[in-house]
Amino acid sequence: MSLPAKKTNKTSETITEYEYRMLNHDMVLKYDDSKCVECGFCHRVCPVTVSIYDEVLKRTAIGTPEEMKIPSDQKTVVDTDKCIWCGCCTWICPGYTLELLINGENKLLLVENGSLPEFEEEIRTLDNGQKVRKVVEGSITITCNEKDDKLIEAFVAECAVDAMKKEGKSITVDKDKCILCFKCSDAAKRYDKIDVRVYRDRFKKVKGEPGSVWNGIMLRVLGKEGKIKGIKSKSQNKLADSVLRLLGRVETEEE
Ligand code: SF4
Ligand code: SF4
Ligand code: SF4
Known about the structure:
Elements (H helix, E strand, L loop, with lengths): L4 E6 L4 E7 L4 E7 L8 H5 L16 E2 L1 H4 L8 E2 L9 H5 L5 E5 L2 E2 L2 H4 L5 E2 L2 E4 L5 E4 L1 E9 L4 H8 L7 E4 L2 E4 L9 H5 L6 E10 L2 E2 L6 H9 L10 H14 L9
Antiparallel strand pairs: 1-2, 2-3, 3-6, 4-5, 6-7, 8-15, 9-10, 11-14, 12-13
The chain binds iron/sulfur cluster (SF4) (3 copies).
One iron/sulfur cluster binds next to helix 1.
């Protein structure tokens, strides 16, 4: 086998390992489909994204099969041609669905080198026993003008953490359960009479001093309108550069 080598290994019915093997590093991004709550945070945080926020995301290394144009029955897939094994998706994943293993050890180099801060977590347990954490604070409003009960029920079922409830012809959200993700607002695009507004105001309190890549992450995930305009690949690629330097590589990927 020539090095570096990239491989996708399905190690069990639900676990897929995306591997990048170099001379001194064996990097594995491990994904467990049974834990994925389809929240979309990984897709937004991935630094391989090149776009301004209010346009359709053009390029990212992780997302739904539809977003990635990779046929799969998994909820989330990784494009190994684009992935740089930085672990940002692991760092943010509310479902504890992703792990980054470096030479077999669970590691987040970007936290270790101070590029990414740790943030306080608010963990809760779903009815099926799975742990989910809330990583941002903010609010959500849902306007439902739909009268068809079946459509309202189908929309409520979109939420993987059981935060939405149908009450008559309205939809209520349990604020304790809601993780302020991207799932229902994306789904609402398929429903003419249901409108969702999610305001991700801030990350949960961060610990320590945020590094230089933090602003780019905030803008991509929180997407404050007005501030995000003009944020292009260069500032976002600081994160990629940081990882590549850690791995002893200096080149960056081009758009
Ligand atoms: S490891 Fe980094 S580059 Fe790869 S999918 Fe996750 S966030 Fe994107
Ligand atoms: S961040 Fe984690 S739980 Fe959310 S969609 Fe990505 S892999 Fe699934
Ligand atoms: S109700 Fe909250 S947790 Fe559920 S899909 Fe919508 S934003 Fe995500």
